[in-house]
Structures are given as C-alpha cells and as structure tokens.
Amino acid sequence: GRVRVAVGPGGQREIPAFNACYAEKANARLSRAQIVEPSTPVNPGAARSGARVTVPIRMVNRKVLVPVVLNGAPPKIFILDTGANVTVVSPGLARTLGFEQVPGEARGTARMASGQEVEVTARRLASIAVGGARIDNFGVVIYDLAGVTQSVGSGIVVDGLLGIDFVGRFTTTIDVRNQTLTFQLDEPAPR
C-alpha cells in the first residue's frame, strides 16, 4: 500500500485528527503483523515462552547502530531512532533490493521533527528482522538520509532509520555498556 501524509502549514489544527486516524489505521495493520521465530534459534537455550533475542549494536557519536535484515537480504546498518514514527530506508538500499522509487510516481509528504516537510515514497516489505525479532508485511518509507549519515562519521554506511513502528512491537532493552539490544519476543510492549 501507499501512504500519503500531508500536514498543513503549522500543522497544529490537523495534528489531533491525524494522530487519531494514524493510531487507528496503524493499530489495525500492526494487529495483522506476525512475529516469526527464526528457523534456527538465535538463543538456543531460551524456551519459547519468555524468549529473548539479543543482538550486538555499535555506539558511534551518541547514535545506536543496529544490523537490520530486509526481505532476507544481508544485514545493513540502521540507526535506532525511537523518535521516528516509521522505519526509513535509503534510496540506495531500496534500489539494491529492487523496491526503489519510480520516476513520476506519486509521493507523499512527511514532516520531520525539525518541522521541515519532505517528500517520501512508501513501500511494503515482505519482512524486516533484527536478529530473531521479525515482522512480516512491514511498511517503510524511502528517504535520502545524507544529512543523518554524515552525523554518524566517515567510513560508516547507514542505510536507514529503525523506527518505533518496529521497536515498539517488543519490550526492548538497550544495554549501552555491553553494546547490545534485546527484544522480548512473546510479550506485547506496553502501549
């Protein structure tokens, strides 16, 4: 599916209506999402009930870098961004995986935290996974992350932002000292 988000100048009057509509539609779609155990357990000793998945992360310039797998492809580096409502994929990665933007295609508008309006293209992925934490039929937007990736540092390729639409589906623990990210797989995150 495609998503079109348009917020008028200032956006204040439209925000309550947008948030209510977004919450209703997002909850309906997320309720159909499935959390699928990997074919080979990430933590073989963990019982099915109470299973946790722990993945290594990197901390660079106060950013949490996470390995993310889209549609079963090799892992790519995403920034964990709990302030992002949706997961964002760079145009380069979208092109590599075959779901790039098409010239002349209708695009939506989204408002960044800074208030800047940007054009985005929405796509639905077969799956997204971080370790054994996986969601099928997952929506993302495509947007150029050049400014964000520069803030991470030279030599590090960042292909996306892992948003709260993924992370919020799990009880999530970030262990900065040990540089790990843990997802509790079988209990829904508090809403």
N-to-C CA distance: 25 Å
Radius of gyration equals 17 Å
Shape field: globular
Topology as a string of helices (H) and strands (E): HEEEEEHEEEHEHEE
Q: Tell me the number of strands.
A: 11
Regions with pLDDT < 50 over 5+ consecutive residues?
A: 1-15, 29-49
Helix content: 10-25%
Spatial strand sequence of the major β-sheet = 3-4-9-5-8-7
Please tell me the overall pLDDT: 76
Model description:
With 191 residues, this protein is α+β, with helices and mostly antiparallel strands. Helix content is 19%, strand content 34%. The strands form 2 sheets. Strands 3-4-9-5-8-7 form a 6-stranded mixed beta barrel. Strands 1-11-10 form a 3-stranded antiparallel β-sheet, with no helix packed on it. The radius of gyration is 17 Å and the shape is globular. The N terminus is likely disordered.
Quick overview:
This protein is α+β, with helices and mostly antiparallel strands and 191 residues long. The protein has four helices and eleven strands; from the N terminus they run H-E-E-E-E-E-H-E-E-E-H-E-H-E-E.
